[in-house]
Amino acid sequence: MNIDYKQNYEEKIRLILIEATSSLEEKFKQMLNKHSASGSLRSGSTIKETMKMISELTHELYLEVLSYCDALNLKYSPSLETDISQLASDAQLKFKIESIAIFKKSTELVGKPNLFERMLPEVEADMANNLAIFENNLNTKTLELKHSTVKSPIERVLWVLEVIFLVISIFVSGMWFNDPSGNYEPFLVGLLSVISLIPLIIKRMSKQ
Length: 208
Hints:
The chain has 208 residues and is mainly α. It has six helices and no strands. The relative contact order is 0.10.
């Protein structure tokens, strides 16, 4: 990835991480207040709500990282997928530290701190699942950019041929205009037929 774009991406992810962390803390406080008011603060629902909250915010973090690729209108490069994946993984690792601290706090508030070690693998498994989904979506996005940015040698040759045939057809049309009695029509029709076929061939190749 271009160094300027990469630095811009790093800054955007830093801001996304700050927002995600702040949102986690705020939603956790709101949930605690709600459960305290309803008398369910020390119930298992506090832990379940915390786990759900972490999962949703992790998912949102990855979505924002991926959507920024469109905002920057990035072009394909061989290191694009690796660069974005690394930036996202670094951000998620920092968010994971905050998330696990919140999760541990929820088990302590419920009065069952022993559940932290027992349920932590479930939290981490959900994070790993979110990461896998993100990497799959990122790979799809990268392939789309690669296909739209990089044309195969055959496609480039076909585009060049189309331009050449178009120039020839214009030249032949000019000759026909200057000499209406000349037998240019079959040749011109053939050229136009070939020109109309080339985009169809390219379109068919692009779907393969």
